[in-house]
């Protein structure tokens, strides 16, 4: 065992010495692997960061949550001309489902309306996102309040002039979000009492941040916009109980709404039941395809780097043919010569890979500082992938030159080098 360790140590020292004695050649060989590993790890890190940000934005929602509307999250076989004729879900349909649908933890009706300006004491905050919802939205989104409360069912049903402000809106209007509750702001030309302020959320890649949103009872917004306004884009959002079978719950929901709309058995459902679980699966599928596509492109860069190492190793064998002959004539075994060149190729490749990983890490830090709350992540898994791939490239690229070097005849090798 000690003999093998000594052979490994001497082979490693020979490899390191060869690399340091040919600095320019070593640098050029490193360049190809560095670019290849940099490309692969940069793509993996970018896709991981994007996926983490999107899923983080959705983390407050239960993936079993169901959204009913006239649009589909996923591709559908129903032609576009037919989908365009689908009616919007109504408030009456929401009330019907809420009363008749069993195993439902929370249900809300939401109108997506245009942004508005909010005024208070001469101050104005523009482009505030308006979320017109019923009271159960608080439980579905798992909202966190810094001050005050969310509006209750009675206020929601009556359309009371109350509002819950996002943290940033409250700060811009009142300076201190904690002093917002109890004040009155002006919106839609009317006065609204501030009854709550949400905790600060930060920026979000998936939809607008709640920091810049105002939450109103849906019925006061319905009175302003009317029920037949196509720009309001209404939704019914349902949160089933945790232990409910998803397929059975969705089937029951579809049946209840079909009966309410009076659809015949041979008629297609003129609405879509979307589940967030399907949307997250869709995100996983897209990020997987992005990873695969990026790896294929980066693979070509890495292939060029591998060819570069193989070429340099063949040149190295050619230059050191005389030395190989001398080593073998003094008793060096074939495995010693093979390990010597194999280590040289692997070390060269791993150093190139480490440089590529370091560049990705450096760029990730710089990019994270410039993009605010969006964080580029270089995971330990991706680092290990980079090191492993670079080591494999060195092994594959160096094996043929190393084998050819180990099989040289010592007499012919010495004669060739003279």
From TrEMBL:
<feature type="transmembrane region" description="Helical">
    <location>
        <begin position="292"/>
        <end position="315"/>
    </location>
</feature>
<keyword id="KW-1003">Cell membrane</keyword>
<dbReference type="Pfam" id="PF12704">
    <property type="entry name" value="MacB_PCD"/>
</dbReference>
<keyword id="KW-0472">Membrane</keyword>
<dbReference type="InterPro" id="IPR003838">
    <property type="entry name" value="ABC3_permease_C"/>
</dbReference>
<dbReference type="Pfam" id="PF02687">
    <property type="entry name" value="FtsX"/>
</dbReference>
<feature type="transmembrane region" description="Helical">
    <location>
        <begin position="376"/>
        <end position="400"/>
    </location>
</feature>
<feature type="transmembrane region" description="Helical">
    <location>
        <begin position="27"/>
        <end position="47"/>
    </location>
</feature>
<protein>
    <submittedName>
        <fullName>Putative ABC transport system permease protein</fullName>
    </submittedName>
</protein>
<feature type="domain" description="MacB-like periplasmic core">
    <location>
        <begin position="26"/>
        <end position="253"/>
    </location>
</feature>
<keyword id="KW-1133">Transmembrane helix</keyword>
<dbReference type="GO" id="GO:0022857">
    <property type="term" value="F:transmembrane transporter activity"/>
</dbReference>
<feature type="domain" description="ABC3 transporter permease C-terminal">
    <location>
        <begin position="296"/>
        <end position="410"/>
    </location>
</feature>
<keyword id="KW-0812">Transmembrane</keyword>
<comment type="similarity">
    <text>Belongs to the ABC-4 integral membrane protein family.</text>
</comment>
<feature type="transmembrane region" description="Helical">
    <location>
        <begin position="336"/>
        <end position="364"/>
    </location>
</feature>
<dbReference type="InterPro" id="IPR025857">
    <property type="entry name" value="MacB_PCD"/>
</dbReference>
<dbReference type="InterPro" id="IPR050250">
    <property type="entry name" value="Macrolide_Exporter_MacB"/>
</dbReference>
<dbReference type="GO" id="GO:0005886">
    <property type="term" value="C:plasma membrane"/>
</dbReference>
């Amino acid at each position: 065992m000690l003999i093998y360790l000594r052979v490994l140590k001497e082979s490693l020292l020979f490899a390191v010495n060869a690399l340091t004695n040919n600095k320019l050649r070593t640098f050029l060989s490193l360049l190809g692997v560095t670019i290849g590993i940099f490309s692969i790890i940069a793509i993996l890190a970018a896709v991981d960061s994007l996926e983490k940000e999107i899923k983080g934005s959705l983390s407050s929602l239960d993936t079993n949550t169901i959204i009913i509307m006239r649009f589909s999250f996923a591709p559908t076989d129903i032609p576009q001309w037919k989908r365009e004729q689908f009616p919007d879900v109504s408030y009456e349909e929401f009330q019907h489902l809420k009363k008749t649908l069993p195993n439902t933890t929370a249900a809300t009706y939401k109108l997506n309306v245009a942004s508005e300006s909010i005024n208070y004491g001469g101050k104005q905050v523009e482009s505030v996102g308006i979320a017109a919802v019923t009271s159960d939205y608080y439980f579905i989104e798992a909202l966190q309040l810094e001050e005050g409360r969310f509006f209750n069912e009675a206020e929601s049903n009556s359309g009371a002039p109350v509002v819950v402000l996002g943290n940033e809106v409250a700060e811009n209007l009142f300076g201190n979000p904690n002093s917002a509750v109890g004040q009155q702001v002006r919106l839609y030309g009317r006065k609204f009492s501030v009854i709550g302020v949400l905790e600060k959320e930060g920026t979000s890649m998936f939809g607008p941040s709640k920091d810049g949103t105002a939450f109103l009872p849906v019925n006061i917004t319905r009175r302003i916009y009317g029920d037949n306004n196509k720009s309001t884009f209404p939704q019914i959002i349902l949160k089933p109980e945790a232990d409910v079978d998803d397929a059975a719950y969705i089937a029951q929901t579809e049946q209840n709404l079909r009966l309410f709309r009076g659809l015949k058995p041979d008629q297609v459902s003129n609405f879509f039941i979307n589940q967030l679980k399907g949307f997250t699966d869709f995100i996983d599928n897209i990020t997987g395809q992005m990873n695969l596509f990026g790896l294929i492109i980066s693979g070509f860069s890495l292939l060029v780097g591998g060819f570069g190492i193989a070429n340099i190793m063949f040149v190295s064998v050619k230059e050191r043919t005389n030395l190989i002959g001398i080593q073998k004539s003094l008793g060096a075994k074939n495995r010693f010569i093979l390990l010597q060149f194999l280590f040289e190729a692997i070390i060269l490749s791993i150093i190139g890979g480490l440089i590529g990983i370091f560049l990705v890490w450096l760029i990730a830090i710089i990019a994270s500082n410039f993009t605010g709350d969006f964080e580029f992540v270089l995971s330990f898994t991706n680092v290990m992938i980079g090191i492993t791939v670079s080591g494999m490239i060195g092994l594959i690229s160096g094996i043929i030159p190393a084998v050819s070097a180990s099989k040289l005849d010592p007499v012919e090798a010495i004669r060739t080098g003279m």
